[in-house]
Write a structure and sequence with these properties.
By secondary structure, the protein is of the alpha+beta class. It folds into 3 domains: about 20-100, ATP-grasp fold, A domain (Dna Ligase, domain 1); about 105-230, D-amino Acid Aminotransferase, Chain A, domain 1 (2-Layer Sandwich), CATH 3.30.470; about 240-385, 3-Layer(aba) Sandwich (Rossmann fold). It has helices spanning about 5-15, 30-40, 55, 65-75, 135-140, 155-165, 170-190, 225-230, 240-245, 265-280, 295-305, 325-340, 355-365, 375-385, and strands at about 20-25, 45, 60-65, 80, 90, 95-100, 105-115, 120-125, 145-150, 195-205, 210, 215-220, 250-255, 260-265, 285-290, 315-320, 345-350, 370. Strands 7, 8, 9, 10, 11 and 12 form a 6-stranded antiparallel sheet that branches. A 4-stranded antiparallel sheet has the order 1-6-2-3. Strands 14-16-17-18 form a 4-stranded parallel sheet, with helices on both faces. It is elongated and about 80 Å long. Bound molecules: adenosine-5'-diphosphate and magnesium ion (MG). Magnesium ion binds near residues 52 and 199.
Length: about 400
């Protein structure tokens, strides 16, 4: 789950990670009122959407008067903001954050992510703040300093010094920076975050560090122990198909290939996608129907998969461990009555009552249902079916 910038900054504040003062607004009047409440004479009007690159897309504007706050808020609220992270369709802006203008001396980058290979959180810092960090990683990777923190010992002074010296900070700023990074590490760990990104981390004219931007992503499986974070969920920012799927207990992630996948278990789903790739095809989605695959969930799965117009074939790969294959076979047949499945469906069922299941499917005599004997056979048939060669 991701949150908005203003929410990430709310969390940062609780841990004494410095952020500019700001107030959220959903109307132009409120934006003006907030600017007056904040005081000062420079404000920044910032579109709140779950995507970065807002500045370049026209979603972040510096206002030098209350009239400009009004002007920019009315331009930004209700606009469809297109950034390199939203895709060409963009995102509708429903909220703006009104923030005090900060005196920027230097823009740095600071992030914390989970490094799955190292099995540790990694803190990343760069002097190339304010730019797309992906570009920096590609073009000048030596400009990103990475320090892995073993969670059993936690963040220590030496981690901070390695980062601070790597950034070439002057001696008098090293202590401040270490304090900042240490607080950010706590934010990451104590909230079960998967990612924190501060781009830019600003050094002000007076030599202080402040988080000018804030992005946070959380481990969905840990949300149960953070009800205050779950309450920050903004469903209007999430993919509508993924959301609908999750309401039915299905984990669905859209991808850009041609073969729709319906699988039980995340591990088998990953293996299925790999095998499709290996056989020369491309998966259109990840879909884990979970442990209770029945006619309704299978029907819902077909419905969601088929909303994607790139899908040329579906591969159902289910292992009957908790569920019995004959029940799933009947579920598939029932589901084809509930949903108009207009593409070939390759079905591989293995495990308890697999033989009975194969008989049920064959006896049903439905033209576009093709049975497969194992994973390799199923993936191969799905690839051929998608090409119209089966
Ligand atoms: P995004 O990364 O989505 O473009 P940012 O929050 O990073 O959005 O803002 C883009 C740029 O706008 C920043 O790099 C900074 O130069 C400027 N900016 C953002 N917030 C402020 C602020 N409070 N004061 C001064 N400048 C700001
Ligand atoms: Mg940014």
């Amino acid at each position: 789950m991701n949150v908005h910038e203003y929410q990430a900054k709310e969390i940062f504040s609780k841990y004494n990670v410095p952020v500019p003062r700001g107030l959220l607004a959903t109307t132009v009047e409120e934006a003006v009122e907030n600017a007056k409440k904040l005081g000062g004479n420079i404000w920044v009007v910032k579109a709140q959407i779950h995507a970065g690159g807002r500045g370049l897309g026209g979603g972040v504007k510096v206002a030098k008067s209350i009239e400009e706050v009004q002007k920019y808020a009315s331009e930004i609220l209700g606009m469809t903001l297109v950034t390199h992270q939203t895709g060409p369709e963009g995102k509708l802006v429903q909220k703006v954050y009104i923030e005090e203008g900060v005196d920027i001396a230097d823009e740095l980058y600071l992030g914390v992510v989970l490094d799955r290979a190292k099995e540790m959180p990694v803190i990343m810092a760069s002097t190339e703040g304010g730019m797309e960090i992906e570009k920096v990683a590609e073009e000048s990777p030596e400009k990103i300093i990475k320090v892995a923190v073993d969670p059993t010992i936690g963040f220590q002074g030496f981690h901070g010094r390695e980062l601070a010296f790597g950034l070439g900070l002057p001696k008098e700023q090293v202590g401040k920076f270490i304090k900042f990074a240490s607080a950010l590490y706590r934010v990451y760990m104590e909230n079960d975050a998967e990612l924190i990104e501060i781009n830019p981390l600003v050094k002000t004219g007076s030599g202080d560090f402040i988080a000018l931007d804030g992005k946070m992503g959380f481990d969905d499986s840990a949300l149960g122990r953070h009800p205050e974070i779950e309450a920050m969920r903004d469903l209007s920012e999430e993919d509508s198909d993924e959301r609908e799927a999750s309401e039915y207990g299905l984990s669905y992630v859209a991808l850009d290939g041609e073969i729709g996948c319906m699988v039980n278990g995340a591990g088998l789903a990953m293996g299925t996608m790999d095998t499709i790739n290996y056989m020369g095809g491309t998966p259109a989605n990840f879909l884990d129907v979970g442990g209770k695959a029945n006619a309704q969930t299978v029907a819902k799965g077909f419905e969601i998969i088929l909303k994607n117009k790139n899908v040329k074939a579906i591969f159902v790969n289910i292992f009957g461990g908790i569920v019995r294959c004959d029940r799933i076979a009947n579920g598939i047949l029932e589901a084809t009555k509930l949903v108009d499945v207009h593409v070939p469906v390759v079905v591989r069922l293995d495990g308890t009552n697999a033989k009975e299941a194969a008989e049920i499917l064959q006896n049903a005599g439905i033209k576009n249902i093709i049975t497969a004997s194992d994973l390799g056979d199923g993936a191969k048939k799905a690839v051929l079916a998608a090409k119209g060669e089966l």
